[in-house]
Amino acid sequence: AIRRGVIAIDGPAGAGKSTVAKRVADSLGFAYVDTGAMYRGITLLGMRTGIAPSDSGEKLTELVRSAELKFEAGSGGLRVYLNGEDVTRAIREPDVSRQVSYYARIPSVRQVLTLLQRELAVADGIVMEGRDIGTAVLPDAEHKFFVTATPLERAKRRLKELNQEGYRLDLDQLVREIEERDRIDSSRSVAPLCVAPDAVVIDTTDLTVDEVVAMIVAKVGNT
Ligand code: CDP
Ligand code: CDP
């Protein structure tokens, strides 16, 4: 059965999932869940505790069982706490971005986070965004969108944000990092990044945020 009032938005890094999902949720009065923040939280925890993606199953079990990580759904998005410390900003740092795909391809990590994501989506009226929401987490979602853009455009968007936060990164390097993350996310064995057969694909390369939001809201309103 199809779950009414459930919207899944997937796509690669920098395609505009978070920005668009938040705006769509606001305009419909739906809750918004950014699942990437959860993978970033696990990654930060691993980096801080010295547990690497290549470590033994036992160490990784320790990582995913850790009760030190808390997720709190709020109006501005998901807040992430590590040992009581608010790490909502820290999980966005470029170092975490470079590591996250290696943690996200570990099956036990995906299993634990997928269950948590389904718990956050028990009530209807939700916009959830990530890589595998329409394909694996909420395959019965009423609406599925896959937003994408060229790697160059996505890197430019990310560079602009990072510059505003005071980071100095090179565009070519960012393009390479984004392509590498796409490659790992698309080729992993469990729930890889791919387009769900019933998803509406939106190429946002030449679109503004307003245009993408309007397309999604119109599609949702028409069915
Ligand atoms: O914000 P950005 O697009 O850079 O990435 P994100 O949405 O925060 O996701 C970070 C990483 O988490 C992705 O590159 C994936 O490796 C992983 N991820 C995933 O595997 N499955 C999801 N549903 C969401 C994120
Ligand atoms: O979540 P994801 O990594 O897919 O993207 P994001 O974190 O929402 O970042 C996308 C950035 O590109 C934001 O700074 C948006 O303002 C900008 N942008 C967009 O999202 N959509 C467009 N059509 C054009 C620009």
From TrEMBL:
Its EC number is 2.7.4.25. GO terms for cellular component: cytosol. Residues 7-220 form the Cytidylate kinase domain. It is found in: Cytoplasm. It is an enzyme of class 2 (transferase). It comes from the Bacteria. GO terms for molecular function: ATP binding; CMP kinase activity; dCMP kinase activity. It catalyses: dCMP + ATP = dCDP + ADP; CMP + ATP = CDP + ADP. Keywords: ATP-binding, Cytoplasm, Kinase, Nucleotide-binding, Transferase. ATP binds at residues 11-19. It holds the Pfam family Cytidylate_kin. HAMAP family: Cytidyl_kinase_type1 (MF_00238). This is Cytidylate kinase. It comes from Desulforudis audaxviator (strain MP104C).
